Amino acid sequence: MNKKSTTFKALTLCGFLAFTPLSAQNYESLISDYLYSTSSKLKSTPFANKEFTISNIDRSESMKGDILQVQQTYNSIPVYQGISTFLIKNNQVEYANENFVSNFDASKTSKKSKSSIDEEKVAQSLFPKLLANAKINSSSSYTFTKENDNKNYVDKKLIYLPKDNQLILAMEFDFEEVNTSNYWHILVDIETGEILLKENLTVFCKFDNGTFSHDNHSHGAPTLLENKINRAETNNIKNVAGAKYNVFAFPVEAPTFGNRAIVSEDRTISLDGWHNDGTTSYTTTRGNNVYAYEDLMGTNSPSYITDAGNSLLFDYPLDINSTLDTYRDAVITNLFYANNRIHDVFYKFGFTETARNFQQNNYNKGGRGNDAVLAEARDSHGRNDSRYLNNANFASPADGINPRMQMYLWNPISPPQRISFNAPSDLVGLNMQTRTANFGPYSTVTPVIGDLVKSEPANGCTTFTNDLTDKIAFVERGVCNFTVKVKNAQVAGAKAVIVYNVDESQGHVQMGSTDDTIIIPSALITYQDGQRLSSALNSGTTINLTYQDDKSKYIWIDSSLDNGMIIHEYGHGISIRLTGNGFNCLNSNQSNEQMGEGWSDFFALMLTNRPEDDASVARGMGTFANAEQPNGGGIRPAKYSPDFAINDYTYGRTNGMTIISDGVTRSNLHRIGFVWATMLWDLHWKYVDRYGYSSNVLSNPNSGSAKVLQLVMDGLKLQSCNPTFIDGRDAILKADEINGGVDRCMIWETFAKRGLGIKASAGEKTGVGTAINDQVEDFTVPADCSLSTQEVKLNSDINVYPNPAKNEVTISSKTIKDKVNIQIFDVTGRKVLDETKVIFSGSNLDTSKLTNGVYIIKLDSKEGSSSQKLIIKK
């Protein structure tokens, strides 16, 4: 056996049943040959670093090849995030995105073999300590044995973590924390028990305080824009051919955008329908793609399931201006429909079984299956805790383990007035805008009545010197946390607290922080209202008021009726599963430019495009949840629009996009993702200009709308683990190149318009401080994308052949007699060759070191410049 053949391990075929062992072995040989070729970035890397296994094979119909995820190993143990992507076409490596770890000292790395370690015993020893050290809920229900519902399953495996120029042998644990939304990914040193890495795989879409403030809006409730179905008629329908649903059918985004309609399940993609997993048929909102239910107590299990009986007619009344108990079946039905529809649409664009999609049964088409989406409506609302409001999240573990979508309720459109004045008479009937706290009692049903008294000290940050027994404290905002003020007031005897802004620049936000010992209610009022009350108290006026916040009277906004938000959450699962190893390669701890929020917004926009829309229609994100009409601003910094008068965000503005969470400065993923989605949205309308528009991307695969969605999906599959904006752009360019590169310049121009031009730089990928402030924007495109008239004329005189070429190309000209500077650039604009030659009678150029792909060959002479496309195909 030659030395090279020992550098890869046998492919584990579990999950790749669509491929034969023969083809898998052939792929191993191709990859091994590539890693030892001059084309590889690892050509000078030590022998041991090229050990690998193939972890996933995905057939891409759009790119007409197989996409391989290749996992680097050492001593037969995976190297953490040592993931490379290969595209195999026509039995050769068409594209390689290499990401193997090469800079470690083997002498400092454990030499233990995998077979010498009792993984079960090590895991049993480390896991209880992990729970204690990481302060994670302990439970006897955790198990290392995989069960049907995966609920308490702890996935474990040995892993090498690169750190300080060595590989540390660790145990990787992936599990869902009981009774929470958290899905933990934790690495523990098997020798010391030290936690080396702790990441939450759940993507939370709870927005920063002040991003929205709709619980004090005074505009009226949105009108329910539907013609209600006559229940007496629809209930008589029996034995329908397939299931039917009364839902907000795509592209209707939410109740404020249009009417509900009766639609049938679609068996075009899901051949057994939406209520059959190949083994069991259901009459509930459960099937092969999703299991939708209500989870009021946040236990990650159903508290209520909608069951239509044998008729499979899911038609229920809905009035969004009524209390929640009147329309929960309608909500769960819409959540079920939306998840199935998203599954079917993206299946057509490559999110299939081998791409690690979400299905309980994969019907022997590859992938692991057993991972239908668990979609939970009104999650945790029964906990009566404001921390479980204004939120949605998606946890996407590795292929074969169920993802979980949690949809929450959002603050009401117009909550009842919390403060009413009893005296003096000039304040009686005055309405004041209030923001509540996410600490203290969730609901104040029994009215709290008392005199309003200023605290001493005024800011409430130290022990009060005045007795506030049975009073309502009036406290200035600032200097210390809200919890400190309210707790000091509580100790002084106050039965409620009103905090007021002391500066007009202070935002009117929900009062944050936590303190479980606070038992009295509190609220924040505006600067203007605060000044009015302060002046009255200073003049000696006695103010008596009633505070009441009875949340049982609220008319909540249910995000399970917001298709845009559902698509957004599901979109996190798509981008996570398609990138790298499919579960932890979009992590903000590994890349400050984590663009997951951007892909999710883009997907939501694409599936809710209305037939009459065009580029002039600016789109707000999440307007329904934000209690706005469809033309509202939404929850992002600006509306999505290619018009810079509406949205002028560019790549450079990602600098400094941070938030402080738990005292730690982190990347503001929502704002950073918004900039990425802005670029993708611009690209959509460029494709529409060239190829035409389609509201329904499945109706016309040749439309610009369908083409750009396919391009973005292909880019996700090609990009590196934990990509930057630059990596994401280059992957999209590569996807276009693989299919001929016909739209290359249009793509460059679109990205460059937003500052992601050829000289843009991402700077450092990780860290705080300068690492979140060193992105460099650039607005230039490759030279050939801005050809002048003179360049076009010169191009007609220059002959480049053969094209496609292999190891040599000839360049000739009938008129240019002087020396010519010849430069070759790859698709990302990187210069790969630079020579000076006389081409008058023809000159040969060595291209043997160039890998397969599309290049631009640029010639500069006294007569001018010329650029042409060169294809290398060996």
Automatic annotation (TrEMBL):
CDD domains recorded: M36, PA_subtilisin_1
Biological processes, Gene Ontology terms: proteolysis
Cofactor(s), names only, from the UniProt record: Zn(2+)
Primary site of residence: secreted
InterPro entries: Fungal_virulence_M36, PA_dom_sf, PA_domain, Peptidase_M36, Peptidase_M4/M1_CTD_sf, Secre_tail
Keywords: Hydrolase, Metal-binding, Metalloprotease, Protease, Secreted, Signal, Zinc, Zymogen
Start and end residues of each Secretion system C-terminal sorting domain: 800-872
Region forming the signal peptide: 1-24
Localization terms from the record: Secreted
Taxonomy, superkingdom: Bacteria
Cellular component aspect of the GO annotation: extracellular space
Domain PA: 449-533
Record flagged with keyword Lipoprotein: no
Any GO molecular function: metalloendopeptidase activity
Keyword S-adenosyl-L-methionine in annotation: no
Entry's family note: Belongs to the peptidase M36 family.
UniProt-recorded name of the protein: Peptidase M36
Species: Chishuiella changwenlii
